Amino acid sequence: MKTKLLTVFILFVATFTNIFADSKEAATNALNFFVPFFPKEYSVRDLTNDYGFQLEDRFKAKMEYKNKMYHFYTAQSSAGDEFIVQTRFFSGYDYVIVAAGDKDIYDMDVKVYDENDNLVAIDRSTQKYSLPILNPKYIYEKNINNDYSILDQKISVRPTQTGDFTIKISIRNAAKDIGGNWALIIANKQAN
Fold it and tell me: b/e map of 83-95 (b: 16 or more CB within 10 Å)?
């Protein structure tokens, strides 16, 4: 009986450690894209005091990356899974949303909706990371809460007014049976 209990405990610890390691891999992939390409004026949101009000704390994590602490959303997912992050964006700021998967997430889409459920930013690429941006090909509503002057820029949202936004992460393709982990970071800076 003690041997079985010890075996179950070891399997639990090994699985938990592997899940956390894969979340770190996903976050590292997101930060490897974000950090070199965005100016230092951008700061990644600290999720201990954030404006997210949908995902529970178990979906929030932090890690050190290049001697700096970063916060991110994360979850283990399989193909077909979807996650919703609701958050408040403030006028006067530019927001960048970057998501990435670990080695077992092959394709994920990220869409951003304003408080009226209008699509305001999208990334449907098949790359290892996802950066939703204003894309007129997919934006059908004219009165969206996103400043059209950010077109063709690496900015996800520049709200015309403070509002509550929804970020939808859709896992399109992942490793069979086991799925994988994704990470999402939200960064902002004062708009120019």
Answer: bebbbebeeeebb
Quick check: helix, strand or coil at residue 48? helix
Query: Do residues 145 and 115 lie in contact, with contact meaning Cβ atoms separated by under 8 Å?
Result: yes
Predicted confidence at residue 54, as pLDDT, reads 53
Could you tell me which of 21, 3, 24 has the C-alpha nearest to residue 13?
21
- For residue 56, is pLDDT > 50? yes
CATH entry, 2-190, from 3.90.950.20, 2.60.120.20, 2.60.120.380, 3.30.70.80: 2.60.120.380
Q: Give CA–CA dist 74/83, Å, rounded.
A: 10
Backbone phi and psi for residue 29, each to the nearest 5 degrees, phi listed first: -60, -45
Per-residue b or e along 125-149, where b marks 16 or more CB atoms closer than 10 Å to that residue's CB: eeebbbbbbbeeeebeeeebbbbee
Model pTM?
0.83
